[in-house]
Task: inverse folding
């Protein structure tokens, strides 16, 4: 009993340290946001670090939702331990995305005009509407899943379908928003919405593995065998297919551009120019090649531990693929010459990005502590608070 108490006290001590560190990160992010609002310093390019960061968080949120919705629609019982955490993760990740884009666009206090002065022909306006629909549908789905035993049998599947449709609409609109910018050859492509869906699903699968595995390692000391097998049987082939499709889409994007007078400067910028280190090193090697080798090698392909190891690599690769796309896409001067427009992220931008990550981790930690996430945990009368189940209820 004393040993058990010591272990509990030790975990509580480290938990408090973890929360304190995350709170420091959140405070730094708030300072960065304040600096951006007050100073509003001009950057060398219109859309700086916060825009690829917004796209990254939006893809992470919708990617987690996309994987999660497919699991809910098909109602496979072995996915039950994943669904609640997947919904929670999507809800958490979408909030920094909205904050980043509003602060980057400036005049954040006029953001409500996006709704009150809605313009049906504006993809940006539709983006605001679809994100509200996305958040609301996720909240309803979370309530339905938590109260599943009191709901009609068809309710979880119906909400899964609704969330899946809204998620696909968000992806399509986001890709079309950038793909319609004809002045940027690196963006202008009818395949960009498809590429965004592939990237989002890939990062969604990676984040499921990462967050759920680490959660069980912290809470129980090990990942349950059935979850390990689930990751190997279902998530591994999914990630292999998505990485291969991602390679194909990159080739489709770059090969024709190499023979275009407008696109050749962008190809050189990525393949052999100042962005080549980020492109070959982080986007291709770290995000695609190394994970694919590990996923296919006969000694590692059946290991859930290796899946956990490559998940952060995939996340890093997806982030820098969007950084290269959006920052690199603005780095070529007028008339598509090879004159590079240099860009260095501001300190405030970096602090806000760090604060966004810290806030997501903090809310997820609190969610694990307070919400009925585990199988067998029951919600109290207030839907988002867990209560202990009795032995008779299977606690």
Result:
């Amino acid at each position: 009993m004393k040993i058990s108490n010591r272990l509990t006290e030790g975990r509580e001590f480290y938990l408090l340290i973890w929360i304190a560190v995350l709170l420091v990160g959140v405070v730094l992010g708030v300072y960065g946001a304040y600096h951006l609002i007050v100073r509003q310093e001009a950057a060398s390019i219109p859309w700086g670090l916060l825009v690829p960061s917004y796209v990254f968080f939006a893809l992470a949120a919708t990617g987690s939702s996309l994987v999660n919705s497919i699991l809910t629609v098909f109602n496979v019982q072995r996915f039950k331990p994943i669904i609640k955490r997947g919904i929670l993760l999507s809800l958490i990740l979408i909030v920094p995305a909205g904050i980043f884009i509003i602060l980057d666009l400036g005049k954040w206090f006029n953001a409500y005009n996006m709704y009150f002065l809605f313009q049906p022909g504006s993809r940006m306006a539709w983006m605001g509407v679809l994100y509200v629909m996305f958040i609301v549908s996720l909240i309803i789905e979370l309530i339905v899943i938590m109260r599943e035993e009191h709901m009609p049998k068809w309710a979880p599947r119906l909400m899964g379908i609704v969330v899946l449709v809204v998620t696909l609409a968000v992806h399509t609109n986001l890709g079309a928003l950038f793909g319609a910018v004809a002045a940027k050859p690196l963006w202008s492509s009818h395949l960009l919405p498809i590429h965004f869906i592939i990237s989002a699903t890939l990062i969604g699968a990676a984040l499921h593995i990462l967050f759920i595995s680490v959660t069980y390692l912290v809470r129980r000391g090990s990942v349950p065998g059935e979850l390990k097998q689930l990751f190997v049987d279902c998530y591994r082939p999914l990630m292999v297919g998505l990485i291969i499709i991602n390679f194909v889409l990159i080739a489709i994007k770059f090969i024709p551009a190499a023979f275009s007078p407008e696109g050749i400067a962008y190809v050189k910028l990525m393949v052999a120019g100042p962005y080549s280190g980020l492109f070959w090193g982080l986007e291709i090697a770290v995000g695609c090649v190394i994970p694919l080798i590990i996923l296919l090698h006969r000694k590692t392909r059946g290991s859930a531990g290796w899946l956990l190891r490559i998940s952060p690599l995939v996340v890093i690769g997806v982030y820098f693929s969007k950084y290269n796309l959006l920052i690199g896409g603005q780095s070529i001067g007028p008339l598509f010459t090879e004159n590079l427009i240099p860009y260095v992220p501001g300190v405030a931008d970096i602090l806000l990005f760090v604060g966004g990550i810290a806030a997501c981790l903090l809310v997820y930690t609190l969610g694990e502590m307070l919400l009925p996430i585990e199988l067998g945990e029951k919600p109290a009368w207030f839907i988002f608070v867990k209560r202990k189940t009795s032995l008779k209820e299977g606690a």
About this structure: Residues 42-345 form a domain with the Formate dehydrogenase/DMSO reductase fold fold (CATH 1.20.1630.10).
